[in-house]
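Researcher: Let's do a round of design. I'm pasting the structure tokens now; please hold your answer until I've finished.
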């Protein structure tokens, strides 16, 4: 019973020290030792979609359209009219670029909701490497608790 209290105390101290950065997968993975089990989870909203795949339906906003136009001009290499080319010639050259065409299609779409299918990109699940790391982490934590 005394070792359980010590284990909880160590975990609470680590939780207080821990600061998360949602941009890093390593920092988002949450590791908790609760009695004899290990929970590895990710509480970011888009994590299940990436891990298992599926479809999402984002709303097309004015801000999104503005971003799509900016990306279109960037991908097409179109800059302000400093050269002698007309706008028609610059746009014709951009039409040949497939990446730029996709951004233009998004900017000009009349849809209010998109249907985006995301392939599975699993980063949490059963794996030999994960099992080995969990086992190593458990043994080091147990040694630290017992030697403290």
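Researcher: That's everything. Go ahead.
Model: Designed sequence:
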């Amino acid at each position: 019973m005394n070792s359980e209290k010590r284990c909880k105390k160590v975990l609470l101290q680590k939780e207080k020290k821990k600061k998360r950065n949602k941009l890093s997968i390593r920092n988002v993975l949450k590791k908790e030792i609760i009695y004899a089990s290990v929970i590895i989870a990710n509480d970011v909203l888009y994590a299940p979609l990436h891990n298992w795949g599926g479809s999402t339906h984002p709303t097309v906003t004015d801000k999104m359209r503005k971003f799509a136009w900016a990306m279109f001009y960037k991908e097409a290499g179109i800059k302000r009219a400093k050269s002698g080319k007309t706008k028609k010639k610059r746009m014709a050259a951009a039409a040949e670029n497939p990446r730029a065409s996709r951004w233009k299609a998004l900017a000009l779409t009349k849809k209010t909701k998109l249907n985006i299918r995301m392939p599975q990109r699993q980063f949490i699940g059963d794996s030999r490497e994960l099992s080995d790391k969990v086992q190593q982490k458990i043994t080091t934590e147990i040694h630290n608790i017992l030697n403290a």
